[in-house]
Amino acid sequence: MRELAEAIRARRLSPIALTETFLERLERLGPRYNAVVTVTRERALREARRAEAEIAAGRWRGPLHGIPYGAKDLLAAAGTPTTWGAAPLRAQTFDTDATVIHRLEAAGAVLVAKLAMVELAGGMGYRQPNASFTGPGKSPWGPDAWSGGSSSGSGSAVAAGLVPFAIGSETWGSILSPAAYCGVTGLRPTYGRVSRHGAMALCWTLDKLGPLALTADDCGLVLEAIAGPDAHDPSAADRTFTHAAGDPAGRRFRFGVLRGVDEGAEPAVRAAFTRSLDTLTKLGTVEEVTLPELPYDAIARTILFAEAASAFEDMIESGTIAELTAPEDHYAPYARDAILAKDYIKALRLRGVVMREADRLLARVDALVAPGRPATAPPLEGEFRSLHRPALDPMGAIGNMAGLPAVAVPNGFSESGLPTSLQFMGRAWADDTVLAAAHAWQSITDWHQRHPAID
Amino acid sequence: MRRMSEPAPDPREAAFLFDLIRTRYGNRLTPEQLEGVRRGVAAVVAQSALLRAVRLSNADEPVQRFVPFRADA
Fold first, then answer.
1. Backbone phi and psi for residue A36, each to the nearest 5 degrees, phi listed first
2. Is position A138 annotated as part of the catalytic site?
3. What is the pLDDT of residues A71-123, one digit of tens each?
4. CA torsion through residues A313, A121, A368, A240, sign
5. Chain A, chain B: beta-carbon pairs less than 8 Å apart
6. Taking CB atoms and an 8 Å cutoff, what residues of chain A touch B25?
7. Whether the predicted pLDDT of B8 surpasses 80
8. What is the C-alpha separation between A160 and A215, in angstroms, rounded?
């Protein structure tokens, strides 16, 4: 994005022409990947014209000025449908922009599309790729490969070159999964780093908004624009974020690897991870680490299911979930009535234990590294559970319930040409550290420079 | 913090909770969907059993701070 930004700033590249290029790609190629809900052509050209006029007048707002982007369709954009990926909500609109959209507009970025997502961000318990009224998201790396979710369109649109960057969200896996399956970079910021105002809530204490782009540096530029306190969101911390690309050559990192973290992963993922650990020794040290034995997945699931059941109480109680796309989403939420209040509170108490243990470990290392996902992109048909994959996700459970930042970056390919992924997860508020580690990784590898054949 | 003795999930608990849910929503679900809900309830109960098996102290507070609201604070 820095190259685009410099060309725009130097007036070698017109924001209007750039926007029209991406609008054309979105309209032509978006349907191929089920990546797009709404192309916001009118708004995009208005914002692009403004950007061009401002830059011509010498008022450059920064590296996002004139850069087109897509927003996961759980982010409100005034007057544009915001469907949450759910058929019953196709016509839903909001009068105001989400804070993230507002901040990107203030940075001069150009909203070109609302991007497809798994219905209700996967909160009803979907078990297969076809879980959105826009159809299953498709990874540009394979005709039968799922894009990942729930930020499906955000991943595939970046990978296919339909947008330079996109905004996604993660409650548990929804940024890292599409980043991994689409072979792009995804940043899950520390919880509270980015305001959630104007974004659909799945789980108030797990939801985080973050960017997907081709590089960690690009993600850092976007985070700087969208991070910061917000009076409309009490969970948004009073902390700003300044992204410094830095010199990756100088820094040495301490990486930790949770014992057994790649057990049960697909062979291609394990092989790529093993090679990655060897590569990481060029950037610093790699050591095996452990955490206490705790029911991490059960803690995170209890919190997620209980809060999701409340967040969508109206849709569940009214039976509207029967209109959703994935068949299991029609009934699975009812089971969550079985979560007792005492058990939910126990999960919150255990959450505190997990947070302290994770912080104690992460105080000793710069980041934990692990596969971004335990498998490559699943096929479009069939349930996930029919595949050989580990039942538990300790990195995801710990990272999300503790609100920790993580970056997923490409680190290889399977024999069938599907991307594999590596994640760096850091201490709370160490978004700069995980970005620096990912940037350093990308300075000595070229996986992020490989792109699927599109046109 | 230490593990309590680990009782297996009580199947009666799952059955009781499933009956409650079936009372509430059964008339809108097919037999196949109800079976899916029953499995979901069993999973929730198993999940809760894992949480209950970990002993905490009175000082281990939930991570959900309550802060009194005042508009001009």
1. -120, 135
2. no
3. 999 999 999 999 999 999 999 999 999 999 999 999 999 999 999 999 999 99
4. negative
5. 93
6. 334
7. no
8. 14
Compute the distance between CA of residue A400 and CA of residue A187 in angstroms, rounded to an integer. Answer: 13
pLDDT of A233 reads 95
**pLDDT single digits (tens) A299-336:** 999 999 999 999 999 999 999 999 999 999 999 999 99
Q: Closest Cα to residue A154, out of A142, A143, A140, A133?
A: A140
Q: The whole model's pTM is what?
A: 0.97
Distance (Å) from the alpha carbon of A393 to chain B's nearest alpha carbon: 14
Alpha helices in chain B (DSSP H): 11-25, 31-52
Closest CA relative to residue A172, chosen from A192, A217, A202:
A202
> Is the CB of residue A28 less than 8 Å from the CB of residue A113?
no
d(CA B51, CA A348): 10
Alpha-carbon gap, residue A358 to A340, rounded angstroms: 27
Catalytic residue among A150, A169, A195, A414: A150
Sign of CA dihedral A253, A259, A264, A267: positive
Q: Which pLDDT value is given to residue B67? A: 79
Q: Which residues of A touch B (CB under 8 A)?
A: 125, 205, 292, 294-295, 298-299, 301-302, 305, 319, 322, 328, 330-332, 334-340, 343, 345-353, 355
Residues of A in contact with B36 (CB under 8 A): 328, 331-332
Q: What are the two backbone dihedrals, phi and then psi, of residue B19, each rounded to the nearest 5 degrees? A: -60, -40
Cβ–Cβ under 8 Å, residues A326 and A127:
yes
| Distance of residue B50 Cα from the nearest chain A Cα, in angstroms | 6
Distance (Å, rounded) from C-alpha A118 to C-alpha A84?
Answer: 8
Average pLDDT, chain A: 96
pLDDT of residue A19: 98
Q: How far is B66 from chain A (nearest CA, A)?
A: 12
Concatenate the DSSP letters of all residues of A324-382 into one string: SSSGGGGTGGGGGGG--HHHHHHHHHHHHHHHHHHHHHHTTSSEEEEESSSSSPPBSSS
ipTM of this complex prediction, to 2 decimal places = 0.92
The band of A249, judged by pLDDT with boundaries at 50, 70 and 90, is: low
CA–CA dist A122, A396 (Å, integer): 15
- Tell me phi and psi for residue A165, to 5 degrees: -150, 165
**Residue A139 among the catalytic residues:** no
Q: Which of B14, B25, B60 sits opposite A334 (nearest CB)?
A: B25
* Closest C-alpha among A6, A104, A101 to residue A55: A6
H/E stretch holding A407 reads strand A406-413
pLDDT of residue A388: 52
Confidence (pLDDT) at A245: 74
